[in-house]
Amino acid sequence: MVAKFKNVDLTKFNDQQRQALEMLCVPNRQEYGEIAKAVGVNLKTLYRWRQFPEFVEAISGMAIMNLHADLPEVFSAMLKKAKAGEVRSVALMFKLLGLTVDKKEVQVEVEAKGESNEDVAEDIKRLKAMLGKR
Known about the structure:
Blueprint: E1 4-5, E2 8-9, H1 15-24, H2 32-39, H3 43-49, H4 53-83, H5 87-96, H6 117-131
Antiparallel strand pairs: 1-2
């Protein structure tokens, strides 16, 4: 089955490349030499493929899809820890659900030039005169 992952069209890769992509994007993947042998290419060919940005993007996209498939298990484990009273898990669950807001304070200091409104009005008049406007 040929599919799209993360806006990467896998139809642009040949069968050997697609097979290599599937083997490269999993956790605890095999060594590069083993993958090259399994797909029927030499190690230099696999190395060359891994230099192409589209190939690297495909690996990343497929790995992300694999992570998405595991999210229910991850959420379940996090929920168990939160229910057991682990504070960090509770905080993370609340954050993921949008129930907390990160508060940031910004303090801005403005240094006044010491000009009065009249000084500014005079500057505006002078600039308008320079532009030929009255």
